[in-house]
Amino acid sequence: MVCDECCDNLADGSDIFIHMKGSSLHILRVGLAITFLWVGLLILKDPVGWGGYINDSFLTYFPVDIKMMMQTTAIFDLVVGLWLLLDYKLWVPASLAVIHLASVLLVSGINAITVRDIGLLSALLALLIECRGRDSNPHEL
Which string of DSSP letters, residue by residue, matches 70-98? Predict the structure, then answer.
């Protein structure tokens, strides 16, 4: 069922997006938050192992050792995950996460986890599109 406001906007052609229902948005937001928190913790547990996913040709461009770089990545993932749980100004963590995952795809190349990263990137883009304009009142959908 589509909300009346969305139907009105579609009728006059002013908005082509139909918004997610509140529960769908919350499931997407919390699911992404859990993913970022979990991956952040896993990277903290084994930063060098996770660094193995980075294509060797990119390692020369990073000014710090792999362990420090991956620990920084883990902290970034934890911050994004917590911010997503807060449900405040979602466009900020969603934007940061989109840039982060795009860079992950760039430096890791095609491998066994590429499909996961493409799925996460797609979900983050959907969240980013959905949360536009809603952040002035986070409980208004």
Answer: HHHHHHHHHHHHHHHHHTSSTHHHHHHHH
Residue 65 CB: number of other CB atoms within 10 A?
13
Collapsing DSSP to helix, strand or coil, 130 comes out as helix
List per-residue pLDDT tens for the chain, 141 residues long: 344 444 444 444 445 455 667 788 999 999 999 999 999 999 999 999 999 988 888 888 888 899 999 999 999 999 999 999 999 999 999 999 999 999 999 999 888 889 999 999 999 999 999 887 665 554 544
Structural domain of residue 59, as residue ranges? 21-131
Question: pTM of the prediction?
Answer: 0.80
Rg (CA), the chain: 18
Into how many domains does the chain fold? 1
Residue 103 lies in a domain: yes
Residue 49 lies in a domain: yes
CA 102 to chain centre: 10
User: Is 137 part of any domain?
Assistant: no
- 70, 47 contact by CB (below 8 A): yes
Q: Is 139 part of any domain?
A: no
